[in-house]
Structure prediction request, 236 residues.
Amino acid sequence: MYERRLLLGSEHVDCFRRLRTSQLLQLLQTASIRHTEELGMGREKTLDKGLLWVVTRMHAEVDRMPVYDERIVIRTWPGETMHMLFPRYYEIASEDGQPLLRASAVWSLMDVRTRTAVFPEEWGVSIDGEEQGSELPWLNPLRAADTPEESVFRVPYSFTDINGHLNNARYFDLAEDLIPAASAGKSLRAFTAEYNREVRLGEELTLRWGGSGGSYYVTGATDAPCFRIKLDYQEE
Prediction:
């Protein structure tokens, strides 16, 4: 179990003083990498050998999004590795122990040269997982929905990360810029993201979206499907 305590600053929150969705993803991503390093699978076993950690799926359920100047506790732990997939689980609580959200993700390793997934045992990468009993399931199918709206987005330099592609957290900035719920101050209650194909610097994405009743569905594709995201907001 990895644990980090953090005071949320202005760089973490939106104009409603709630933790920005993309910043939530960044915090979970950072916790994942730090824990992986603690478990002996840091850059000398991966990045320095030409291997990249990538997220293929993320799911979260939110009781309450933490707010500006609030102290939170982030916890993460790995599940049992399944062939090429590394499940990982997360919890965020308030400083006094109030549960705020639970999340689950699936990570895998990608070869930086071929940009394809690799079998971790062939590279000597292994992480022992342990179920705690409070894990949020990640095998939730994401069903297609009606997406009547469409626009085009070209990936800028500022949206890319150390892996040379559109960062998993920035997909949520893309999504929430398109749909009305976030800018209207609606509270996020759940989301699911599926990343099917990486999107590199300069690539053009065709974005489609739609939604009603607090639920929104956003997709992106180049010559093939790249991602799907579903966001659920509380109707206030």
In short: The first strand starts at residue 2 and ends at 7. The two ends are 36 Å apart (CA to CA). The chain has three helices and ten strands.
